[in-house]
Specification:
Butyryl-Coa Dehydrogenase, subunit A, domain 1; six-stranded mixed β-sheet; single chain; alpha+beta; Butyryl-CoA Dehydrogenase, subunit A, domain 2
Length: 680
C-alpha cells in the first residue's frame, strides 16, 4: 500500500514538473476587479472624426455628394404619406435626377469599381430604400446580367442605354412556383432554326414570372431566365440544355405599350418598398433574335448546334449564378446601412430621453439603464463588426471581378451567401428592438422604424432565401472539410479550419479554461480561438451525424435530419469570419484614439457572442463556470463603457439629420422638432 501511495505522489510531481516546462507561467491572471484595473479608471476618449475617416475610406466624397444633392432638393424627398403610384413615380424621378442632374453614373462602376458602386447604393438607400432597390434592379440586376452573362456584342449594344436610363429593364428570374430552386424554372426558350429566333413561352400559370422589379410600370426590357430547348433528330425531338438568360423586349421604345405576346400585371401593394413597381410577366410565343441569348457560358449557332466551354448543365448553371453574386453583396452592404440608421436613431433618442432617477434628483438618460444598454450597445458593436465584414466582402468581390480566379469565385459565393443571410436576419430583428427601445415615440411613423422595418424585411428573402443561403455555406464547409482530410488546400477565409480542427480533436486545456482575467478575456487570440473552436466542433459533429444518418435515410433525408445543426454551423462560421475581420480592422486603424474605440466595441462583440452561446462552451468544458461568470460580467461592463462613448460612435457613421430624418434623433432641439411635426 505504501508503494502505491509513493507512486501516486511521484506521478503527481512528474505531472506538475511537466506542466511547468510546457507553460512556466500558468498562474491565473489577476481577477476581474474594477478598482485594480487601470483601464477602468482611465476615461476613454474617441476621436470621432478620425474614426469616421477610417470607416468611410476613399468613397466618402461620393456619398457626401449624394447626401448633399438630395438634401438640396425637397421635391425629391419622400414624404411620410404617399400613395403607391406616386411613390413609384417619385422613385423614377429620383433615379433620373441622380444620373441626369447630379451627374452620378453608377453603372460605370458596377464592373470596374464595385466598391464605389456599393457606396453610392448605400447613400441612395438612405434617401429612400425603394430608390436604392430600384437603382439596384436597373444596374446590378438588369445591367449586371447583360455585362456579366453576355459578350462584347451585348455590351456594345446595351451599355449606354442602360447607363443613361434610356433602356430601363427588369431581371425576370423568379416564377410563381419556383423561387429558390432556380434550376426548376419552367419558362422555355425554344430555338427555331428556320427563322433563327428563340420563342419565349410561359407553359402554365406556375411559370409566370413573379415579383419582377421595374416590370409593372417602367421596364422596357427584361433579362428572362428560361430553359433553352433545342430541336434534335432523335426520338425525343428536343433537348433541354438547362436554364439560360435571354434579353426580351417587353414594351415599345416609343409608345411604351406592351409588345405582342407579352402580358404584364401589377403585383400591387406590398408590405414595404412600394416605390418599386413589381409586376408579373407571361409570354405567349414571343420571338426574339438568336443574338438575344446572353451567351458567355453557352451559345447556339445558326444551324442550332450548342457550344460551351463548360461541360455540363450544372457547371454552366453554377457559372451563371456565380456571376450574379453582386446582388447578395449589395444586400449585405445595404443592410448594414439600414442598421446604422436604426441604431443611430435609437441611441440618439436614448441619450436624450430622461425617465426616473434617484429620489429628489434629476431624471437620468434611459441609456444609463443596464437594460437599455443590453438592448443597444451589443447592437452598436455588431454594426461596426458588420461594416468591416462587408467592406472585406466588397474587396474580395472586386478582386474576383478582376481576376476571375476559380478559387476566389467559390470563396466569394459562399461568403456573400453567409454574410447576406446573417446580416439581413440580424438587422431585421434589430429594427424591432430599436422600435421597442424608443417606446411610444418609436411607434410614430415619422420616426422611421416602421418604414425601415417594412422596407428591409424582404432583404431576408430576395437574392436568396436566408435559410437556403445558410445551407449553401454549410455545404461548402463540408466540402472543404472533406478536402482537408484528402490533402486539399483551403482558401484564406477557411484556412483557420486546418489548425482548429486539429485542436478540436484534443481536449480543452483545463488550465486556460479557468482563466478569467480581463487581459485574457480581451485578448483577440482567446476570442478568435473560442469562435474557431466552436465552428470546428460543429463541423466535426455534423459530419459524423450526416455519415451516420445517410446509411438509413439517404443523402437528402440525412441532410434534413441534421438541418438545424447545419444552420448553426453556418452561422458560427460567419460569426468567426466577422470577428477575424473586425480584429484585423482594429489592428490596422492608424489613429490611437479611434483604435481604442474600435477595440472596445470589438471586445464587446466577441464576448457578447460567446456569452450568448455559453452553453456550447460549458458542455465541453472549454469555459469553466468561474470563467463563464467573468465573461458575463465583463460584457456587461463593456456595454457600460460603450454607452459612455456611444455618441461619438454613432456620429462616426456620419448620418446627419437629413439622412436619419427622425425627429427623435435630431442632434439639436429634438423635442422641438418633434412637436412641430404634429402641428404645435
Amino acid at each position: 500500500m505504501a508503494l502505491e501511495e509513493f507512486s501516486e505522489i511521484a506521478a503527481a510531481r512528474r505531472i506538475q514538473r511537466l506542466s511547468s516546462h510546457i507553460s512556466p507561467a500558468l498562474t491565473e491572471p489577476p481577477q476581474l476587479q474594477t478598482e485594480a484595473c487601470s483601464s477602468r479608471t482611465r476615461k476613454l476618449v474617441v476621436n470621432g472624426q478620425a474614426l469616421s475617416l477610417y470607416m468611410k475610406g476613399k468613397h466618402r466624397d461620393i456619398q457626401e455628394k449624394v447626401h448633399e444633392f438630395y438634401n438640396s432638393r425637397p421635391d425629391l424627398q419622400t414624404p411620410l404619406e404617399i400613395s403607391k403610384d406616386d411613390h413609384r413615380e417619385l422613385c423614377m424621378r429620383q433615379l433620373y435626377a441622380l444620373v441626369r442632374e447630379a451627374g452620378i453614373r453608377p453603372f460605370r462602376y458596377v464592373a470596374d469599381d464595385p466598391a464605389k458602386y456599393f457606396a453610392i447604393m448605400e447613400a441612395v438607400g438612405s434617401v429612400d430604400m425603394s430608390f436604392g432597390i430600384k437603382m439596384g434592379v436597373q444596374y446590378s440586376l438588369w445591367g449586371g446580367s447583360v455585362i456579366n452573362l453576355g459578350t462584347k456584342k451585348h455590351r456594345d449594344k446595351y451599355f449606354d442605354g442602360i447607363d443613361n436610363l434610356d433602356y430601363l429593364g427588369c431581371f425576370a428570374m423568379t416564377e410563381l412556383h419556383h423561387g429558390s430552386n432556380v434550376q426548376g424554372l419552367q419558362t422555355t426558350a425554344t430555338f427555331d432554326p428556320i427563322t433563327d429566333e428563340f420563342i419565349i413561352d410561359t407553359p402554365h400559370d406556375g411559370a409566370i414570372k413573379w415579383w419582377i422589379g421595374n416590370a409593372a410600370v417602367h421596364g422596357k426590357f427584361a433579362t428572362v431566365f428560361a430553359r433553352l430547348i433545342l430541336p434534335t433528330h432523335d426520338t425525343k425531338g428536343v433537348s433541354d440544355m438547362g436554364v439560360h438568360a435571354f434579353i426580351v423586349p417587353i414594351r415599345d421604345m416609343k409608345t411604351h405599350q406592351t409588345l405582342p405576346g407579352v402580358e404584364i400585371q401589377d403585383c400591387g401593394q406590398k408590405v414595404g418598398l412600394n416605390g418599386v413597381d413589381n409586376g408579373a410577366l407571361r409570354f405567349r410565343s414571343v420571338r426574339i433574335p438568336r443574338d438575344n441569348l446572353l451567351n458567355r457560358f453557352g451559345d447556339v449557332s445558326r444551324d442550332g448546334k450548342y457550344t460551351s466551354s463548360l461541360p455540363t448543365i450544372n457547371k454552366r448553371f453554377g457559372a451563371t449564378l456565380g456571376e450574379l453574386v453582386g446582388g447578395r453583396v449589395a444586400l449585405a452592404y445595404s443592410s448594414v446601412g439600414v442598421l446604422k440608421v436604426s441604431a443611430t436613431i435609437a441611441i440618439r433618442y436614448s441619450l436624450l430621453r430622461q425617465q426616473f432617477g434617484p429620489p429628489k434628483q434629476p431624471e437620468v438618460s434611459i441609456l444609463d439603464y443596464q437594460s437599455q444598454q443590453h438592448k443597444l450597445m451589443p447592437m452598436l458593436a455588431s454594426t461596426y463588426a458588420y461594416h468591416f465584414a462587408t467592406v472585406y466582402l466588397v474587396e474580395k468581390y472586386s478582386e474576383m471581378k478582376k481576376t476571375n480566379d476559380e478559387q476566389l469565385v467559390a470563396d466569394v459565393h459562399a461568403l456573400s451567401a453567409g454574410l447576406k443571410s446573417y446580416i439581413t436576419s440580424y438587422t431585421a430583428k434589430s429594427l424591432s428592438v430599436c422600435r421597442e427601445a424608443c417606446g411610444g415615440h418609436g411607434y410614430a411613423a415619422v420616426n422611421r422604424f416602421g418604414g425601415l422595418r417594412n422596407d428591409h424585411d424582404i432583404f431576408q428573402t430576395f437574392e436568396g432565401d436566408n435559410t437556403v443561403l445558410l445551407q449553401q455555406v454549410a455545404a461548402d464547409l463540408l466540402k472543404r472539410y472533406k478536402e482537408k482530410f484528402q490533402g486539399g488546400t483551403l482558401t484564406v477565409t477557411w484556412s483557420y479550419l486546418r489548425e482548429s480542427m486539429s485542436s478540436y480533436l484534443a481536449q480543452p486545456n483545463p488550465v486556460t479554461a479557468r482563466w478569467e482575467g480581463e487581459d485574457h478575456l480581451r485578448d483577440p487570440k482567446f476570442q478568435l480561438d473560442a469562435f474557431r473552436y466552436r465552428t470546428s466542433r460543429l463541423l466535426q459533429s455534423v459530419a459524423m451525424r450526416l455519415k451516420k444518418h445517410s446509411k438509413t435515410l439517404g443523402t437528402f433525408g440525412a441532410w434534413n435530419r441534421c438541418l438545424n445543426h447545419l444552420l448553426t454551423l453556418a452561422e458560427s462560421h460567419i460569426e468567426t469570419v466577422i470577428l477575424a475581420k473586425f480584429i484585423e480592422a482594429v489592428r490596422k486603424c492608424p489613429d490611437p484614439s479611434a483604435r481604442a474605440g474600435l477595440k472596445l466595441v470589438c471586445d464587446l462583440y466577441a464576448l457578447d457572442r460567446i456569452w450568448n452561446d455559453i452553453g456550447t462552451y460549458r458542455n465541453v468544458d472549454y469555459v469553466a463556470p468561474n470563467k463563464a461568470k467573468a465573461i458575463h460580467k465583463l460584457a456587461e461592463y463593456l456595454s457600460f463603457q460603450v454607452r459612455n462613448v456611444a455618441k461619438e460612435l454613432v456620429d462616426a457613421f456620419e448620418l446627419p439629420d437629413h439622412v436619419t430624418r427622425a425627429p427623435i434623433a435630431m442632434q439639436a432641439d429634438a423635442y422641438s422638432q418633434y412637436t412641430q411635426v404634429v402641428g404645435f
